[in-house]
Structure formats: C-alpha cells, structure tokens
Design a protein that fits this description.
A hairpin with a 2-residue loop joins strand 11 and strand 12. It is built from nine helices and 14 strands. The protein is α/β, with parallel strands linked by helices and 360 residues long. The chain binds NADP nicotinamide-adenine-dinucleotide phosphate. NADP nicotinamide-adenine-dinucleotide phosphate binds next to helix 1 and helix 4. Keywords: Oxidoreductase.
C-alpha cells in the first residue's frame, strides 16, 4: 500500500470467488478512468479450481497486465504477500469464515452484502478486525454512487421535496427458483438463501437513506413490521415496513423472487413534491427525477451521472482512500451501520419466519 500527496493511492486486491459479482468487480477495478481516486491492482484470484480461476481471468480481465496470479482455494489469497485487501464474493453463508480468515492473516477486507447471516456474526467479525487493526467494510456499493450522495443532499440539506414522510422501494427479480438445485445460494438456507438478504437489503437501503440523514448509532431506530412468503424455510417475497415514531415517517421496502421490478423502483414522497428513482435495479440506480407538488410527468427535473462500468469502482476508490489514510472503517458504510441493517433483517426474519441453521 503506497500513498503520497501527489499520486492517488495504490491498493493491491486479492479476489475470493469467481461468481457473478466478482466478475463485475474485477471488470470495474480494471477500467481506465480519468477521475479514478485510486490505482487498483488485481494481484491474485482464488477459486474453487485452478481451471475456473483461469477461465474467469480470460473472460473478464484478459487485458490486465500483469495478469493476476490464480490459485485453487482461498488460503493462498489470505496469505499472499502481494495482497493488501481481500475482496470476498462468496455466498453470504461463507462471509463470516472468509472474513475471519483474511483478518487473521492481517489483510484488510471488502466483503459482499449481506455481510453475514445475522448481526451477531457481524459483531464477531468487527471485533476480530478491531483486535487485528485492519480495515473492514461491507460492500454496499449502492451507497457510494455519486447519484445517491446527490439525492441525499437534495432530500436532507436542500429539502427539495420538503419534509419526507413516505418511501416505497422494491427490488424484484424473476429468478425461476424451481429450476435451481437445492445447493444453489438462492435455495440453500445454510448459504443465506431468500430475497431478504439478497435483494430486500437494497430496498431497505433506500428507505433508511431517504428517511433519515443519520446512519449507524446516530440514526433513529425505526420500528420494524415485516411479513414474508416462505417456500420451505426461505423467503420468496418479503415486505419490511420501517416506522419512525418521532415523525410518523414510513418506508415500505419490498422484495420478490417472482417478478422483475420495472425501471422505476423507488418513490420518495414529501410535503412539497416527490422523487422517483430508476435503474436496472435498486442496487444500481441510474437517474432520479424531482417533481414539485402538482408538476406533471414531463415537468420533473431529472438528475443522472455517468457510470462507465457497473458502478462498483466508487466503493473500491473509497476503500483505497480510507486505507491510505489509515482508517479502519468507512464513514458511508461504517461497522455500526452494517450491524444496524443486519439487526433490522434479523427482526424481519423473526417476524416473517425465514430461518437459517446458524440461528439455532
Ligand atoms: N450477483 C449480484 O448481482 C450481486 C450483487 C451484489 C452483491 N452480491 C453478493 O455477492 C455474493 C455472491 O453472489 P453472486 O451472485 O456472485 O454468486 P454466484 O454467482 O453464485 O458466485 C458465488 C461464488 O462463490 C464461490 N463459492 C464457494 N462456495 C460456494 C458454494 N457452496 N456455492 C456456491 N458458490 C460458492 C464460487 O466461486 P469459486 O468456485 O470461484 O470459488 C461461486 O462462483 C452474495 O453474497 C451476494 O449477495 C451479488
């Protein structure tokens, strides 16, 4: 890890797992961006097999030079001398053990959402990180989009729609679960299957960020009301209502595995107008439109920002800057916020009925 006042910091990544999100992540790390705030080196890839790891490099980052070293298994990544930080792209059920292994080897960690299966496990990981003195963050990439930062500013500082009182946010995917085997991360409860941890976490993010400027310990803790539609023990649809007793604000945060949400996935209602947010999914917003009270569809003011990749490089830049500055956690996604969101998810499952073996 090297940093100077003049050049952006360099961060050397070791990647654990070669599934979908890891492919997007390495592609974004390898993008050439004139406004990049860090230089990202993809030093090593760990996969269940050498062949799979090599095929991943060939398909997703064939032009990265020098090519990352590929290893069968993850242990070589935790202990690799050229790796500063381990990116964890395994299913949620493995995150705790992967994080603890990386931390124990003295590596910084960026771990995919949901960070762990429950809040108790997240606290254990953060305690280990604190003791070891390494940086750890949940990869809640959406929060790092400049568009999301701008939206929060307009809602909370500029108050462009007055007092926000209600939010609807949805992330639905048409996952055809019947076609998947029981070992799939979308079907296996031991891996954290179900829409709640997989996608409702994004709907919740919109509710939380729109209704309260504060996060983590500073935020007001909403009352949670939740229902889930279960198939076996996993949820195929979840609705989580956040209710803020001090103001009466509400967020209705939903997810389903049976229907793909249309482009407009969120509506934020205020005393002086409303905002709609659109994108391929609630995880990856591309634009929002602000309507003053009474304005028609054609009269709204649309905001958008360029996204030359998937949008995962913004969180990666933030992590590199934090580590260069000697920080152990990030202010946009601090440890307390990860724990708070997992406590909401725990409570939603307690009310809704989805259980994971780790709960017992
Ligand atoms: N897909 C998305 O859009 C997305 C977006 C944001 C976050 N995430 C999060 O990222 C994590 C991974 O999601 P994904 O969609 O990338 O999953 P995925 O495509 O199924 O890939 C998961 C990878 O984890 C490794 N793995 C190790 N043990 C496994 C097991 N028993 N079953 C399945 N995979 C196993 C495999 O890589 P190797 O064989 O190479 O070891 C596999 O390719 C999840 O926590 C998810 O919530 C996903």
């Amino acid at each position: 890890m090297a940093a100077s006042n003049k050049s952006p910091p360099t961060l050397r990544w070791g990647i654990i797992a070669t599934g979908q999100i890891s492919s997007w992540f390495v592609r974004d790390l390898s993008l050439s961006r004139s406004d990049a705030k860090a230089k990202h080196v993809i030093a090593a890839i760990g996969s269940s097999s050498q062949e799979k790891g090599e095929a991943f490099v060939k398909e997703w980052i064939p032009k990265v030079d020098p090519a990352p070293k590929v290893y069968a298994g993850y242990d070589n990544i935790y202990n690799h001398p050229d790796v500063d930080i381990v990116y964890i792209g395994t299913p949620h059920g493995f995150h705790k053990q992967n994080c603890l292994a990386a931390i124990s080897a003295g590596k910084h960690v960026l771990c995919e959402k949901a960070f762990t299966l429950n809040a108790r496990d997240a606290k254990e990981v953060f305690a280990a990180a604190k003791e070891k003195g390494v940086f750890v963050m949940e990869a809640l990439w959406t929060r790092f989009f400049p568009l999301v930062q701008e939206l929060q500013h307009l809602i909370h500082e500029e108050k462009v729609i007055g007092n926000v009182h209600r939010v609807f946010a949805d992330l639905g995917l048409d996952q055809d679960l019947a076609s998947l085997g029981p070992e799939s991360r979308l079907k296996n409860p031991a891996l954290g299957a179900g829409t709640l941890l997989d996608v409702c976490i994004y709907s919740l993010t919109w509710g939380l960020l729109s209704l309260d400027r504060n996060i983590g310990e500073a935020a007001e803790q909403p009352v949670i009301k939740a229902v889930q539609t279960l198939s076996d023990t996993i949820d195929v649809a979840s609705t989580v209502v956040l209710f803020y007793p001090s103001t009466g604000r509400q967020a209705i945060c939903t997810s389903t595995a049976m229907f793909r949400t249309p482009d407009v996935f969120c509506r934020i209602e205020g005393s002086e107008g409303h905002i709609t947010v659109e994108g391929v999914s609630a995880s990856c917003p591309s634009a929002f439109t602000v309507y003053s009270k009474g304005q028609s569809l054609s009269e709204g003011k649309r905001f958008t920002t360029p996204n030359p990749g998937f949008g995962l490089f913004w969180e990666a830049d933030a992590v590199a800057e934090d580590i260069a500055a000697g920080k152990k956690e990030n202010t946009i996604m601090p440890w307390a916020e990860t724990v708070r969101v997992l406590e909401i998810l725990d409570e939603a499952r307690r009310q809704g009925g989805a259980r994971f073996p780790v709960d017992d």
